[in-house]
Write the structure tokens for this entry.
Amino acid sequence: MDAKTLIAKRIALELKDGYLVNLGIGTPTLVANYTPKNVNIFFESENGIIGMGPIPQEGMENADLINASAGYVTALPGSSCFDSATSFGLIRGGHLDVTVLGGLQVDEKGRLANWMIPGKMIPGMGGAMDLVTGAKRVIVSMTHTAKGKPKIVKECTLPITSIRPVDLIVTEMAVIEPTKSGLVLKEIAPGITIDEVLRNTEAHLIIPENVPIMKIE
Amino acid sequence: MQVLKPTEVIKMIPDGASIMVGGFLGVGTPACLVDEIINQEKKDLTVMCNDSAFPDRGIGKLIVKKLVKKLIASHIGTNPETQQQMIKKELEVELVPQGTLAERIRAAGVGLGGILTPTGVGTIVEDGKQVVELDGKKYLLELPIHADFALIKAKRSDYLGNLAYSLTARNFNPIMAMAADIVIAEVEEIIPVGAMPPDEVHTPNVLVDYVIVDGRR
């Protein structure tokens, strides 16, 4: 199983029946493919829709119906559309159960940096700052390292997205939970040892006595 | 409300004007009005919109033609031209978190002196802004954004100027329709007065000054 699929499958287990969920651009969108059976999720997109469905068949696209990456989507029965103020009211106002976002760095305080690399890449924060600040639960979906360098660091060197700590970090190596006492290693991926996780992590990790292996099919 | 041709309505916009343009990655952007701004080579514009879309789509075209002096947006990552002009200091860019952008525009339209938002607290978005503490929680004071003109896109209007939007093409359009001195709506069709049930009106006619019909359809 490749890293992206593994991460997406593990995050999908965090989604519960009836949740309102926002999936960020890139790998996070894969999570929708692996939601557990008999679990009904309302997927929303910050451009103003709740109840997004899968990509339409060729020729069935509606030019007015896209997700936040400008990809064509469908609207499931029971879906709703609204303006940007309402959309971000849902996000900032605590009505969004889960947001899954990509990350460049997460630090020991659980703070996420994911919107710019000064001097190199300035795409803008889009909705990321509101999502991290306002969602009930923030899950970071990212590779454990970038070009061999740890992305889970002591302190973010990149501009942070919010001072609000994220709730869970899922990588192809581990599941890590930021807590008041620090980052706790909750699970490791199949075939990965705790030592390997530690070698690829710059931040201090708290290792509980029992660290289970991710339960993914 | 007056129905005009794009050439007539864009003539009213002077060089150096501030214009709000609806749309999310080009969807819900009044394409005919944008094209006419390019035809008439309006210069030194201050443009407020969610994003700078793509080089060949939406307000991205205005950036490529170098008609924009200042851009206020939440995301510029899909248009490399915006970042290049920003780095060369040919274009001033103010990046605003998307939810904050929506509320600042809304504030201007509904007569509020500003809004208090937790988004951006403790990040570089805080720089130069007043932090207000209420009940132990910190907020940024964000000021209203008003424009000389709002260029919006709706699905249809009636001959009074009542507007209805379509799916995710709604986005920033309804709030921008309240936040500018002159509001110009581009629609796909104009229907008789009375043909639009009151409950289906998203933007009341009193806000709309001019309507143009997208003649390409």
Notes: Chain B has a mean pLDDT of 97. Chain B has one domain: 2-112+144-213.
